[in-house]
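Homework help thread (please don't just give me the answer)

Our assignment gives two proteins as sequence + structure token strings and asks us to describe the second one. The first is just a warm-up. Here they are:
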Amino acid sequence: MGRKQTRVSGASNEGKAKLHRLLFVNPKESANMDELAQRLISLKLVQEVILYDHRLGYVAKVRFHQGSEPKNVRAYISGLLSKDYGCVVKE
């Protein structure tokens, strides 16, 4: 039996950063992984996004600009992420 091939999508902004957070996104069936990556990278505080396609949803590795990580990452991402993509389930 072969292994399922993993899809990865990412985006990056210029500049130094050091803070990484992992989030689990429970996507809607119609959610597009590449569009979600672009939406996340468009958020003001986010410098880099890497999405991993998991059988249960997307795992998002998010890096914030140095010194700009919000106190509640899950609430920050959820509040700015369109419900078209799903919801952030766990940080």
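The one we have to describe:
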Amino acid sequence: MRDIVAAAIDQLCVAFERGGYNPTPIIDLGVLVVIADGVVDDKEREVLLDLFQTLLDTKLSPEVVDHLVTASVQVVEAAGAESRARLIAEILLDCDAVEPGILVALAVAYASEGLSKEERVVIERIADAAELPRARLDQLISRVRLRADGGDPMSVRSLLAAGPPSSP
């Protein structure tokens, strides 16, 4: 799982830089997923902080990352999840980074309680707006599910937090 998500984050960061975007859409992707049920609880916030602190290989303090997550939640609440999902999809399309973005969204879903019905709807909304065929989305979901060790959230989180894979 770590290799899939780390590669997706790297691809997104490169694509965003090439397209002139900052990496905050990665945080927005995660927030859109965890807010799918209408609330970002403490466990979900912790998952976001763990994932983005680790995967963005950031030197930012947990407080700064928490501020970025809080700001993203406020933007989603003010603009509406559907319009924010469309904007993220447009950015992913513009950067030619739809699949890496969907992989990050799926990783966030599986790192908390697995892919819930509400989270799947949000991810489908982003995928549809980004013109990702539903059959390809299903393949990506299967790929992440298989790597999530039976959907065990702690397993996914520990894999992602273990750091970058070592080179042979």
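TA reply:
I won't write it for you, but here's a hint about the kind of observation we're looking for: Residues 159-168 have pLDDT under 50 and may be disordered.
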